[in-house]
Amino acid sequence: MTTDANSSASPPGLRESKKQQTRRLISDVATGLFLSQGFEQTTIADIAAAARVAKKTVTNYFPRKEDLALDHQDAFIASLAGTLVGRRPGTSALAALRGAFVEAAEAANPVAGFSGPAFAGMIADSPTLSARLRDLHDLREAALADALADATGTPRGDITPRTAAALLGAVHRTLFQRIQELTLAGEDNARISAVVTAEADAAFGLLEPSLADYAPA
Amino acid sequence: MTTDANSSASPPGLRESKKQQTRRLISDVATGLFLSQGFEQTTIADIAAAARVAKKTVTNYFPRKEDLALDHQDAFIASLAGTLVGRRPGTSALAALRGAFVEAAEAANPVAGFSGPAFAGMIADSPTLSARLRDLHDLREAALADALADATGTPRGDITPRTAAALLGAVHRTLFQRIQELTLAGEDNARISAVVTAEADAAFGLLEPSLADYAPA
DNA sequence: ACATAAAAATGCTACGGATGTAAGATTGCC
DNA sequence: GGCAATCTTACATCCGTAGCATTTTTATGT
Protein backbone atom coordinates (compact mmCIF):
# COMPACT_ATOMS: atom_id res chain seq x y z
CA MET A 1 0.00 0.00 0.00
CA THR A 2 2.43 2.64 1.20
CA THR A 3 5.65 3.32 -0.60
CA ASP A 4 8.91 1.66 0.26
CA ALA A 5 10.64 4.99 0.64
CA ASN A 6 8.83 5.49 3.89
CA SER A 7 10.20 2.34 5.42
CA SER A 8 13.84 3.12 4.67
CA ALA A 9 14.15 5.68 7.45
CA SER A 10 14.33 8.60 5.05
CA PRO A 11 12.29 11.72 5.80
CA PRO A 12 9.37 12.01 3.39
CA GLY A 13 11.43 13.85 0.81
CA LEU A 14 10.13 16.57 -1.45
CA ARG A 15 9.65 14.37 -4.47
CA GLU A 16 7.74 11.69 -2.60
CA SER A 17 5.75 14.36 -0.87
CA LYS A 18 4.67 15.99 -4.08
CA LYS A 19 3.80 12.66 -5.58
CA GLN A 20 1.44 11.81 -2.80
CA GLN A 21 0.07 15.30 -2.97
CA THR A 22 -0.92 15.06 -6.61
CA ARG A 23 -2.11 11.53 -6.07
CA ARG A 24 -4.35 12.76 -3.31
CA LEU A 25 -5.47 15.70 -5.39
CA ILE A 26 -6.48 13.47 -8.28
CA SER A 27 -8.23 11.02 -6.00
CA ASP A 28 -10.18 13.73 -4.21
CA VAL A 29 -11.21 15.48 -7.41
CA ALA A 30 -12.25 12.15 -8.88
CA THR A 31 -14.39 11.02 -5.96
CA GLY A 32 -16.01 14.43 -5.91
CA LEU A 33 -16.96 14.15 -9.56
CA PHE A 34 -18.04 10.54 -9.15
CA LEU A 35 -20.37 11.31 -6.28
CA SER A 36 -21.82 14.38 -7.91
CA GLN A 37 -22.38 13.11 -11.43
CA GLY A 38 -21.89 9.35 -11.29
CA PHE A 39 -19.01 7.04 -12.11
CA GLU A 40 -19.77 6.17 -15.70
CA GLN A 41 -20.73 9.74 -16.53
CA THR A 42 -17.35 10.99 -15.43
CA THR A 43 -14.57 10.60 -17.96
CA ILE A 44 -10.89 10.49 -17.19
CA ALA A 45 -10.54 13.64 -19.24
CA ASP A 46 -12.98 15.34 -16.88
CA ILE A 47 -10.91 14.35 -13.90
CA ALA A 48 -7.69 15.46 -15.51
CA ALA A 49 -9.19 18.80 -16.46
CA ALA A 50 -10.65 19.38 -13.01
CA ALA A 51 -7.35 18.46 -11.35
CA ARG A 52 -5.33 20.50 -13.87
CA VAL A 53 -3.09 17.59 -14.83
CA ALA A 54 -2.58 15.53 -17.96
CA LYS A 55 -4.78 12.54 -18.70
CA LYS A 56 -1.73 10.33 -18.64
CA THR A 57 -0.90 11.47 -15.15
CA VAL A 58 -4.28 10.23 -13.96
CA THR A 59 -3.92 6.83 -15.56
CA ASN A 60 -0.33 6.74 -14.35
CA TYR A 61 -1.36 6.94 -10.73
CA PHE A 62 -4.51 4.89 -11.22
CA PRO A 63 -4.12 2.37 -14.03
CA ARG A 64 -7.77 1.46 -13.93
CA LYS A 65 -10.60 3.87 -13.51
CA GLU A 66 -12.14 1.76 -10.76
CA ASP A 67 -9.10 2.34 -8.57
CA LEU A 68 -10.09 5.98 -8.37
CA ALA A 69 -13.36 5.13 -6.70
CA LEU A 70 -12.57 2.16 -4.51
CA ASP A 71 -9.98 3.08 -1.98
CA HIS A 72 -8.52 1.04 0.87
CA GLN A 73 -8.65 -2.06 -1.30
CA ASP A 74 -5.77 -3.75 0.47
CA ALA A 75 -7.32 -3.23 3.86
CA PHE A 76 -10.54 -4.75 2.62
CA ILE A 77 -8.81 -7.74 1.06
CA ALA A 78 -6.77 -8.43 4.17
CA SER A 79 -9.57 -7.90 6.65
CA LEU A 80 -10.86 -11.46 6.96
CA ALA A 81 -7.44 -13.05 7.01
CA GLY A 82 -6.30 -10.46 9.51
CA THR A 83 -9.22 -11.21 11.77
CA LEU A 84 -8.35 -14.86 11.67
CA VAL A 85 -4.68 -14.38 12.41
CA GLY A 86 -5.42 -12.00 15.25
CA ARG A 87 -8.11 -14.08 16.89
CA ARG A 88 -7.90 -14.68 20.60
CA PRO A 89 -6.94 -18.09 21.92
CA GLY A 90 -9.82 -20.47 22.23
CA THR A 91 -11.88 -19.01 19.43
CA SER A 92 -12.60 -20.84 16.20
CA ALA A 93 -12.33 -19.21 12.80
CA LEU A 94 -16.09 -18.93 12.59
CA ALA A 95 -16.40 -17.38 16.03
CA ALA A 96 -13.69 -14.86 15.28
CA LEU A 97 -15.13 -13.80 11.95
CA ARG A 98 -18.62 -13.74 13.35
CA GLY A 99 -17.57 -11.56 16.25
CA ALA A 100 -15.62 -9.21 14.01
CA PHE A 101 -18.55 -8.74 11.70
CA VAL A 102 -21.02 -8.01 14.47
CA GLU A 103 -18.57 -5.56 15.94
CA ALA A 104 -18.10 -3.84 12.58
CA ALA A 105 -21.84 -3.79 11.98
CA GLU A 106 -22.54 -2.14 15.30
CA ALA A 107 -19.85 0.44 14.64
CA ALA A 108 -21.15 1.01 11.10
CA ASN A 109 -17.66 0.32 9.80
CA PRO A 110 -17.21 1.14 6.11
CA VAL A 111 -15.22 -2.06 5.62
CA ALA A 112 -18.35 -4.02 6.47
CA GLY A 113 -20.32 -2.13 3.81
CA PHE A 114 -21.41 1.08 5.51
CA SER A 115 -20.38 3.52 2.82
CA GLY A 116 -23.23 6.02 2.82
CA PRO A 117 -26.07 6.42 0.32
CA ALA A 118 -24.13 8.40 -2.26
CA PHE A 119 -21.29 5.92 -2.41
CA ALA A 120 -23.60 2.93 -2.43
CA GLY A 121 -25.59 4.49 -5.23
CA MET A 122 -22.48 5.18 -7.23
CA ILE A 123 -21.50 1.54 -7.04
CA ALA A 124 -25.00 0.26 -7.63
CA ASP A 125 -25.52 1.91 -10.99
CA SER A 126 -22.05 1.22 -12.30
CA PRO A 127 -21.46 -2.28 -13.65
CA THR A 128 -17.75 -1.60 -13.71
CA LEU A 129 -17.61 -0.80 -10.03
CA SER A 130 -19.87 -3.68 -9.07
CA ALA A 131 -17.62 -6.06 -10.94
CA ARG A 132 -14.56 -4.68 -9.23
CA LEU A 133 -16.24 -5.05 -5.86
CA ARG A 134 -16.88 -8.69 -6.63
CA ASP A 135 -13.22 -9.01 -7.47
CA LEU A 136 -12.32 -7.64 -4.08
CA HIS A 137 -14.61 -10.11 -2.36
CA ASP A 138 -12.93 -12.90 -4.27
CA LEU A 139 -9.45 -11.71 -3.38
CA ARG A 140 -10.51 -11.43 0.22
CA GLU A 141 -11.76 -14.99 0.15
CA ALA A 142 -8.53 -16.20 -1.41
CA ALA A 143 -6.50 -14.47 1.29
CA LEU A 144 -8.68 -16.07 3.93
CA ALA A 145 -8.20 -19.46 2.32
CA ASP A 146 -4.44 -19.13 2.57
CA ALA A 147 -4.67 -17.96 6.15
CA LEU A 148 -6.91 -20.89 7.04
CA ALA A 149 -4.56 -23.32 5.39
CA ASP A 150 -1.67 -21.91 7.39
CA ALA A 151 -3.67 -21.92 10.61
CA THR A 152 -4.71 -25.54 10.26
CA GLY A 153 -1.40 -26.82 9.01
CA THR A 154 -2.90 -27.79 5.69
CA PRO A 155 -1.17 -27.21 2.37
CA ARG A 156 -2.34 -24.11 0.58
CA GLY A 157 -4.75 -24.95 -2.18
CA ASP A 158 -6.21 -27.86 -0.28
CA ILE A 159 -9.91 -28.30 -0.69
CA THR A 160 -10.91 -28.05 2.96
CA PRO A 161 -9.55 -24.60 3.85
CA ARG A 162 -10.61 -23.35 0.45
CA THR A 163 -14.14 -24.55 0.99
CA ALA A 164 -14.24 -23.17 4.51
CA ALA A 165 -13.01 -19.81 3.23
CA ALA A 166 -15.62 -19.91 0.49
CA LEU A 167 -18.36 -20.56 3.05
CA LEU A 168 -17.22 -17.87 5.45
CA GLY A 169 -16.64 -15.45 2.61
CA ALA A 170 -20.08 -16.20 1.23
CA VAL A 171 -21.72 -15.21 4.50
CA HIS A 172 -19.70 -12.03 4.75
CA ARG A 173 -20.45 -11.12 1.17
CA THR A 174 -24.16 -11.76 1.60
CA LEU A 175 -24.32 -9.55 4.66
CA PHE A 176 -22.24 -6.90 2.91
CA GLN A 177 -24.75 -6.83 0.09
CA ARG A 178 -27.58 -6.59 2.58
CA ILE A 179 -26.02 -3.49 4.07
CA GLN A 180 -25.70 -1.99 0.61
CA GLU A 181 -29.34 -2.76 -0.12
CA LEU A 182 -30.56 -1.21 3.08
CA THR A 183 -28.38 1.81 2.52
CA LEU A 184 -29.85 2.29 -0.93
CA ALA A 185 -33.32 1.87 0.52
CA GLY A 186 -32.67 4.96 2.58
CA GLU A 187 -32.41 3.39 6.00
CA ASP A 188 -30.19 5.13 8.50
CA ASN A 189 -27.13 3.43 9.92
CA ALA A 190 -28.66 2.72 13.31
CA ARG A 191 -31.53 0.80 11.78
CA ILE A 192 -29.25 -1.00 9.35
CA SER A 193 -27.02 -2.06 12.18
CA ALA A 194 -29.96 -3.48 14.07
CA VAL A 195 -31.36 -5.36 11.09
CA VAL A 196 -28.06 -6.71 9.89
CA THR A 197 -26.93 -7.77 13.34
CA ALA A 198 -30.03 -9.90 13.63
CA GLU A 199 -29.54 -11.30 10.15
CA ALA A 200 -25.91 -12.01 10.89
CA ASP A 201 -27.09 -14.12 13.78
CA ALA A 202 -29.16 -16.22 11.40
CA ALA A 203 -26.52 -16.39 8.69
CA PHE A 204 -23.55 -17.27 10.86
CA GLY A 205 -25.80 -19.48 12.95
CA LEU A 206 -26.62 -21.48 9.87
CA LEU A 207 -22.92 -22.21 9.43
CA GLU A 208 -22.31 -23.03 13.07
CA PRO A 209 -23.06 -26.79 12.94
CA SER A 210 -20.52 -27.20 10.17
CA LEU A 211 -17.68 -25.00 11.28
CA ALA A 212 -17.97 -24.67 15.05
CA ASP A 213 -14.87 -26.76 15.59
CA TYR A 214 -12.91 -25.72 12.53
CA ALA A 215 -9.60 -23.91 12.89
CA PRO A 216 -9.58 -23.42 16.65
CA ALA A 217 -6.96 -21.18 18.13
CA MET B 1 -33.76 -17.04 -25.14
CA THR B 2 -35.13 -18.16 -28.50
CA THR B 3 -37.19 -15.88 -30.66
CA ASP B 4 -40.92 -15.54 -30.44
CA ALA B 5 -41.32 -16.23 -34.12
CA ASN B 6 -40.62 -19.85 -33.47
CA SER B 7 -43.42 -20.22 -30.99
CA SER B 8 -46.10 -18.68 -33.23
CA ALA B 9 -46.52 -21.81 -35.35
CA SER B 10 -44.77 -20.29 -38.36
CA PRO B 11 -42.23 -22.41 -40.22
CA PRO B 12 -38.68 -21.19 -39.55
CA GLY B 13 -38.88 -18.63 -42.34
CA LEU B 14 -36.05 -17.61 -44.57
CA ARG B 15 -35.23 -14.46 -42.61
CA GLU B 16 -35.04 -16.19 -39.26
CA SER B 17 -33.10 -18.99 -40.82
CA LYS B 18 -30.48 -16.72 -42.26
CA LYS B 19 -30.20 -14.80 -39.05
CA GLN B 20 -29.35 -17.88 -37.07
CA GLN B 21 -27.04 -18.94 -39.84
CA THR B 22 -24.95 -15.79 -39.73
CA ARG B 23 -25.12 -15.79 -35.94
CA ARG B 24 -23.75 -19.29 -35.92
CA LEU B 25 -21.13 -18.38 -38.49
CA ILE B 26 -19.89 -15.45 -36.43
CA SER B 27 -19.87 -17.46 -33.23
CA ASP B 28 -17.96 -20.33 -34.81
CA VAL B 29 -15.40 -18.09 -36.45
CA ALA B 30 -14.95 -16.19 -33.20
CA THR B 31 -14.41 -19.25 -31.00
CA GLY B 32 -11.96 -20.55 -33.56
CA LEU B 33 -9.93 -17.39 -33.40
CA PHE B 34 -10.21 -17.20 -29.62
CA LEU B 35 -8.92 -20.70 -29.13
CA SER B 36 -6.10 -20.33 -31.63
CA GLN B 37 -4.78 -16.92 -30.69
CA GLY B 38 -6.43 -15.99 -27.38
CA PHE B 39 -9.39 -13.86 -26.43
CA GLU B 40 -7.73 -10.54 -25.79
CA GLN B 41 -5.50 -10.90 -28.83
CA THR B 42 -8.51 -11.28 -31.07
CA THR B 43 -10.25 -8.08 -32.05
CA ILE B 44 -13.80 -7.74 -33.23
CA ALA B 45 -12.42 -6.48 -36.51
CA ASP B 46 -10.54 -9.77 -36.88
CA ILE B 47 -13.72 -11.72 -36.33
CA ALA B 48 -15.67 -9.59 -38.76
CA ALA B 49 -12.99 -9.96 -41.41
CA ALA B 50 -12.72 -13.70 -40.95
CA ALA B 51 -16.49 -14.11 -41.10
CA ARG B 52 -16.78 -11.73 -44.05
CA VAL B 53 -19.29 -9.48 -42.33
CA ALA B 54 -19.25 -5.93 -41.04
CA LYS B 55 -17.99 -5.12 -37.57
CA LYS B 56 -21.38 -3.72 -36.71
CA THR B 57 -23.01 -7.01 -37.57
CA VAL B 58 -20.84 -8.78 -35.02
CA THR B 59 -21.62 -6.33 -32.24
CA ASN B 60 -25.23 -6.41 -33.32
CA TYR B 61 -25.57 -10.12 -32.64
CA PHE B 62 -23.24 -10.09 -29.64
CA PRO B 63 -23.40 -6.78 -27.79
CA ARG B 64 -20.47 -7.69 -25.58
CA LYS B 65 -17.37 -9.45 -26.72
CA GLU B 66 -17.57 -11.94 -23.87
CA ASP B 67 -20.85 -13.25 -25.23
CA LEU B 68 -18.94 -14.58 -28.20
CA ALA B 69 -16.86 -16.86 -26.03
CA LEU B 70 -19.18 -17.96 -23.27
CA ASP B 71 -22.11 -19.79 -24.71
CA HIS B 72 -24.99 -21.54 -22.99
CA GLN B 73 -25.00 -18.86 -20.34
CA ASP B 74 -28.67 -19.31 -19.55
CA ALA B 75 -28.28 -23.02 -19.06
CA PHE B 76 -25.44 -22.42 -16.68
CA ILE B 77 -27.31 -19.81 -14.69
CA ALA B 78 -30.40 -21.96 -14.38
CA SER B 79 -28.58 -25.19 -13.60
CA LEU B 80 -28.56 -25.05 -9.80
CA ALA B 81 -32.09 -23.74 -9.50
CA GLY B 82 -33.21 -26.34 -12.00
CA THR B 83 -31.60 -29.11 -10.03
CA LEU B 84 -33.38 -27.94 -6.93
CA VAL B 85 -36.78 -27.71 -8.56
CA GLY B 86 -36.40 -31.09 -10.20
CA ARG B 87 -35.18 -32.94 -7.13
CA ARG B 88 -36.79 -36.18 -6.20
CA PRO B 89 -39.10 -36.40 -3.20
CA GLY B 90 -37.31 -36.94 0.05
CA THR B 91 -34.08 -35.24 -0.95
CA SER B 92 -32.85 -32.03 0.62
CA ALA B 93 -31.45 -29.16 -1.37
CA LEU B 94 -27.94 -30.11 -0.37
CA ALA B 95 -28.40 -33.75 -1.30
CA ALA B 96 -29.85 -32.84 -4.66
CA LEU B 97 -27.10 -30.38 -5.56
CA ARG B 98 -24.45 -32.70 -4.26
CA GLY B 99 -25.75 -35.58 -6.29
CA ALA B 100 -26.06 -33.47 -9.41
CA PHE B 101 -22.49 -32.27 -9.12
CA VAL B 102 -21.04 -35.72 -8.62
CA GLU B 103 -23.03 -36.93 -11.56
CA ALA B 104 -21.79 -34.07 -13.72
CA ALA B 105 -18.23 -34.59 -12.54
CA GLU B 106 -18.28 -38.25 -13.44
CA ALA B 107 -19.70 -37.45 -16.84
CA ALA B 108 -17.15 -34.64 -17.35
CA ASN B 109 -20.03 -32.31 -18.07
CA PRO B 110 -18.93 -28.93 -19.44
CA VAL B 111 -21.47 -27.18 -17.22
CA ALA B 112 -19.54 -28.41 -14.19
CA GLY B 113 -16.33 -26.93 -15.57
CA PHE B 114 -15.00 -29.54 -17.98
CA SER B 115 -14.28 -27.30 -20.92
CA GLY B 116 -11.01 -28.67 -22.24
CA PRO B 117 -7.51 -27.25 -21.92
CA ALA B 118 -7.79 -24.74 -24.74
CA PHE B 119 -10.99 -23.23 -23.45
CA ALA B 120 -9.79 -23.18 -19.86
CA GLY B 121 -6.60 -21.49 -20.94
CA MET B 122 -8.50 -18.92 -22.93
CA ILE B 123 -10.51 -17.99 -19.86
CA ALA B 124 -7.55 -18.11 -17.51
CA ASP B 125 -5.47 -15.51 -19.28
CA SER B 126 -8.31 -13.16 -20.02
CA PRO B 127 -9.41 -10.92 -17.14
CA THR B 128 -12.50 -9.99 -19.10
CA LEU B 129 -13.66 -13.56 -19.44
CA SER B 130 -12.79 -14.43 -15.86
CA ALA B 131 -14.85 -11.49 -14.67
CA ARG B 132 -17.77 -12.55 -16.80
CA LEU B 133 -17.52 -16.08 -15.45
CA ARG B 134 -17.73 -14.70 -11.94
CA ASP B 135 -20.82 -12.82 -13.02
CA LEU B 136 -22.38 -16.03 -14.20
CA HIS B 137 -21.62 -17.72 -10.89
CA ASP B 138 -23.28 -14.83 -9.11
CA LEU B 139 -26.34 -14.95 -11.29
CA ARG B 140 -26.55 -18.67 -10.76
CA GLU B 141 -26.43 -18.17 -7.03
CA ALA B 142 -29.14 -15.52 -7.20
CA ALA B 143 -31.37 -17.85 -9.19
CA LEU B 144 -30.78 -20.56 -6.62
CA ALA B 145 -31.63 -18.16 -3.82
CA ASP B 146 -34.98 -17.40 -5.39
CA ALA B 147 -35.67 -21.07 -5.97
CA LEU B 148 -34.80 -21.87 -2.37
CA ALA B 149 -37.06 -19.11 -1.10
CA ASP B 150 -39.90 -20.47 -3.19
CA ALA B 151 -39.22 -24.03 -2.10
CA THR B 152 -39.22 -23.20 1.59
CA GLY B 153 -42.14 -20.80 1.49
CA THR B 154 -39.90 -17.91 2.52
CA PRO B 155 -40.15 -14.46 0.98
CA ARG B 156 -37.59 -13.82 -1.71
CA GLY B 157 -34.71 -11.76 -0.43
CA ASP B 158 -34.92 -13.28 3.02
CA ILE B 159 -31.59 -13.86 4.65
CA THR B 160 -31.88 -17.60 5.19
CA PRO B 161 -32.41 -18.81 1.62
CA ARG B 162 -29.94 -16.22 0.42
CA THR B 163 -27.31 -17.48 2.80
CA ALA B 164 -28.04 -21.09 1.97
CA ALA B 165 -27.74 -20.30 -1.73
CA ALA B 166 -24.49 -18.49 -1.07
CA LEU B 167 -23.10 -21.51 0.78
CA LEU B 168 -24.17 -24.02 -1.81
CA GLY B 169 -23.03 -21.75 -4.61
CA ALA B 170 -19.70 -21.28 -2.90
CA VAL B 171 -19.06 -25.01 -2.85
CA HIS B 172 -20.05 -25.38 -6.47
CA ARG B 173 -17.89 -22.47 -7.50
CA THR B 174 -14.90 -23.79 -5.57
CA LEU B 175 -15.17 -27.18 -7.21
CA PHE B 176 -15.67 -25.55 -10.59
CA GLN B 177 -12.43 -23.65 -10.13
CA ARG B 178 -10.69 -26.84 -9.08
CA ILE B 179 -11.70 -28.48 -12.32
CA GLN B 180 -10.36 -25.50 -14.23
CA GLU B 181 -7.09 -25.68 -12.33
CA LEU B 182 -6.64 -29.36 -12.97
CA THR B 183 -7.53 -28.89 -16.60
CA LEU B 184 -4.89 -26.20 -16.94
CA ALA B 185 -2.40 -28.45 -15.19
CA GLY B 186 -2.77 -30.88 -18.04
CA GLU B 187 -4.65 -33.64 -16.28
CA ASP B 188 -7.00 -35.73 -18.37
CA ASN B 189 -10.69 -35.79 -17.69
CA ALA B 190 -10.70 -39.22 -16.09
CA ARG B 191 -8.18 -38.18 -13.51
CA ILE B 192 -9.89 -34.85 -12.90
CA SER B 193 -13.18 -36.65 -12.36
CA ALA B 194 -11.61 -38.90 -9.79
CA VAL B 195 -9.87 -36.13 -7.90
CA VAL B 196 -12.82 -33.77 -7.93
CA THR B 197 -15.31 -36.42 -6.95
CA ALA B 198 -13.25 -37.09 -3.85
CA GLU B 199 -12.89 -33.40 -3.12
CA ALA B 200 -16.60 -32.89 -3.63
CA ASP B 201 -17.15 -35.43 -0.92
CA ALA B 202 -15.09 -33.36 1.47
CA ALA B 203 -16.55 -30.04 0.40
CA PHE B 204 -20.20 -31.02 0.46
CA GLY B 205 -19.55 -33.11 3.53
CA LEU B 206 -18.35 -30.03 5.33
CA LEU B 207 -21.69 -28.40 4.66
CA GLU B 208 -23.73 -31.42 5.64
CA PRO B 209 -24.10 -30.68 9.38
CA SER B 210 -25.54 -27.27 8.57
CA LEU B 211 -27.83 -27.98 5.66
CA ALA B 212 -28.77 -31.64 5.90
CA ASP B 213 -32.32 -30.80 6.84
CA TYR B 214 -32.73 -27.61 4.84
CA ALA B 215 -35.29 -27.40 2.06
CA PRO B 216 -36.45 -31.02 2.03
CA ALA B 217 -38.64 -32.14 -0.80
C1' DA C 1 -46.16 -10.36 -60.13
C1' DC C 2 -45.23 -6.18 -58.62
C1' DA C 3 -44.90 -2.65 -55.23
C1' DT C 4 -44.37 -1.39 -50.71
C1' DA C 5 -43.12 -1.96 -45.94
C1' DA C 6 -40.16 -4.16 -42.55
C1' DA C 7 -35.80 -5.70 -41.23
C1' DA C 8 -31.03 -6.70 -41.52
C1' DA C 9 -26.31 -5.68 -43.04
C1' DT C 10 -23.22 -2.19 -44.05
C1' DG C 11 -20.12 1.80 -43.75
C1' DC C 12 -19.14 5.75 -41.33
C1' DT C 13 -18.47 8.74 -37.39
C1' DA C 14 -17.54 9.45 -32.68
C1' DC C 15 -16.38 8.75 -27.79
C1' DG C 16 -14.05 6.75 -23.83
C1' DG C 17 -10.59 3.89 -21.70
C1' DA C 18 -6.00 1.97 -21.97
C1' DT C 19 -1.25 1.99 -23.62
C1' DG C 20 3.09 3.69 -25.77
C1' DT C 21 6.61 7.16 -26.91
C1' DA C 22 9.36 11.09 -26.80
C1' DA C 23 10.23 15.69 -25.13
C1' DG C 24 10.47 18.85 -21.23
C1' DA C 25 10.69 19.89 -16.26
C1' DT C 26 11.78 18.91 -11.53
C1' DT C 27 14.16 16.69 -7.89
C1' DG C 28 17.98 14.30 -5.63
C1' DC C 29 22.69 13.39 -5.33
C1' DC C 30 27.51 14.03 -6.11
C1' DG D 1 26.68 23.70 -10.29
C1' DG D 2 25.93 19.87 -13.01
C1' DC D 3 24.46 15.11 -13.86
C1' DA D 4 21.21 11.34 -13.56
C1' DA D 5 16.80 9.70 -12.43
C1' DT D 6 12.06 10.32 -12.47
C1' DC D 7 7.76 12.58 -13.10
C1' DT D 8 4.74 15.27 -16.02
C1' DT D 9 3.17 16.38 -20.30
C1' DA D 10 1.48 16.21 -25.04
C1' DC D 11 0.73 13.80 -28.64
C1' DA D 12 -0.66 9.26 -31.05
C1' DT D 13 -2.65 4.75 -31.58
C1' DC D 14 -5.64 0.79 -30.59
C1' DC D 15 -9.85 -1.36 -29.19
C1' DG D 16 -14.61 -1.79 -27.69
C1' DT D 17 -18.97 0.33 -27.87
C1' DA D 18 -22.66 3.15 -29.68
C1' DG D 19 -25.47 5.91 -32.95
C1' DC D 20 -26.99 6.95 -37.57
C1' DA D 21 -27.91 7.04 -42.55
C1' DT D 22 -27.82 4.10 -46.52
C1' DT D 23 -28.29 0.00 -49.14
C1' DT D 24 -29.69 -4.68 -49.70
C1' DT D 25 -32.65 -8.42 -48.62
C1' DT D 26 -36.94 -10.45 -47.05
C1' DA D 27 -41.90 -10.45 -46.19
C1' DT D 28 -46.44 -8.97 -47.17
C1' DG D 29 -50.50 -6.98 -49.51
C1' DT D 30 -52.76 -5.73 -53.65
UniProtKB/TrEMBL annotation, chains A, B:
The segments labelled Disordered in the record are 1-21
- Which SUPFAM superfamilies does its entry note? Homeodomain-like
Q: Which Pfam families match?
A: TetR_N (PF00440)
Domain HTH tetR-type residue range list: 20-80
Q: Which UniProt keywords apply?
A: DNA-binding, Transcription, Transcription regulation
Q: Kindly list the residue ranges recorded as spanning the membrane.
A: none
**The name this protein goes by in its record:** TetR family transcriptional regulator
Q: Which organism is it from?
A: Streptomyces globisporus
